[in-house]
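Technical annex, item 7. During the second reporting period the consortium partners agreed on a shared format for inverse folding records so that results from different sites could be compared directly. Each record opens with the tokenized structure and is followed by the designed sequence. A conforming record, contributed by the partner at site C, is shown below for reference.
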């Protein structure tokens, strides 16, 4: 079971994961791929757990004032804040809307929308990410200006999704073209929702979830969730008040991600304790429970795949 637990202190970062790794303002970010192959464009990216789950788990760590450039995915992308304060912004130029999230807040970002984020806190911060599908939709789609800025600083993205660093003398292989910029027609098809449209349907605040989870876990994301969506996985929120000693199982792997406090996870053959920032993959068919192991505030997110196909944000 220890091979299915990734401790916060054991996370292995990649600083060359994406096309903006040399762009000033984005060159200090760290990318972590915890479960699944993720969407990194660098062969240097370490993957901690390769077992298919139906979704990917990753994280981004950034110092203050560092930002992640405007991009999109073909499947759902969900973030919750582990530490510090983060500003999320979206739209063709990042000006259509924005929201500031605090630790524990969760944001399910609509597909078809360029999004970016930056640490606006005072210390190194971390956000945890869930991306739909085992193959994460085939990579990242960048706003055209991101690709152009990256080229000015020596990084070229091939149409194969691999990065080449011209500052190291790397060039595109024969017969391989650079990733083309989105056409005007493709850009015109993208949506530009405002903040008032996004907040009620895509953002859940930590303290609201704590209040709602006073007797039973809250389904945050799912067909019947607080944030109604069918991204190929469901996300539940559990607190000390809604945790139970009763053991249960799923027919597929599930993931436990503490955001506050320490949690003791027990199964028939053993037990372990998880802290904020740790990620645990629980095998399908394993009877287990998760309860706070110390006094004080305690909350965790629980993720499990569904039979819904990973794809564009559901609007039914």
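Designed sequence (site C submission):
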């Amino acid at each position: 079971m220890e091979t299915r637990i990734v401790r916060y202190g054991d996370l292995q970062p990649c600083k060359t994961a994406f096309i903006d790794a040399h762009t000033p303002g984005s060159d200090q970010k760290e990318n972590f791929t915890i479960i699944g192959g993720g969407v990194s464009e660098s062969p240097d990216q370490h993957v901690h757990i390769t077992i298919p789950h139906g979704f990917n788990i990753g994280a981004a760590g950034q110092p203050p004032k560092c930002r992640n450039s405007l991009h999109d995915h073909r499947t759902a992308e969900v973030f919750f804040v582990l530490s510090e304060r983060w500003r999320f912004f979206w739209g063709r130029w990042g000006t259509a809307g924005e929201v500031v999230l605090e630790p524990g807040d969760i944001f399910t970002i609509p597909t078809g929308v360029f999004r970016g984020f930056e640490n606006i806190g005072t210390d190194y911060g971390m956000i945890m990410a869930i991306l739909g599908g085992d193959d994460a939709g085939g990579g990242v789609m960048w706003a055209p200006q991101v690709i152009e800025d990256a080229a000015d600083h020596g990084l070229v993205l091939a149409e194969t999704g691999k990065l080449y660093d011209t500052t190291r003398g790397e060039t595109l292989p024969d017969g391989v073209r650079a990733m083309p910029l989105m056409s005007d027609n493709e850009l015109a098809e993208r949506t530009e929702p405002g903040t008032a449209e996004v907040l009620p349907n895509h953002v859940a605040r930590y303290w609201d979830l704590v209040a709602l989870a006073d007797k039973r876990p809250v389904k945050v994301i799912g067909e019947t969730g607080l944030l109604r969506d069918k991204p190929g996985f469901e996300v539940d929120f559990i607190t000390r008040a809604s945790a139970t000693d009763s053991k249960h199982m799923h027919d597929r792997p599930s993931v436990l991600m503490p955001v506050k406090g320490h949690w003791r996870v027990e199964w028939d053959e053993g037990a372990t304790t998880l802290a904020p920032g740790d990620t645990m993959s629980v095998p399908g068919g394993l009877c287990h429970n998760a309860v706070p192991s110390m006094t004080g505030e305690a909350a965790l997110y629980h993720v499990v795949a569904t039979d819904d196909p990973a794809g564009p944000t559901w609007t039914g």
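The two ends are 38 Å apart (CA to CA). The first strand starts at residue 5 and ends at 6. All partners now use this format for quarterly exchanges.
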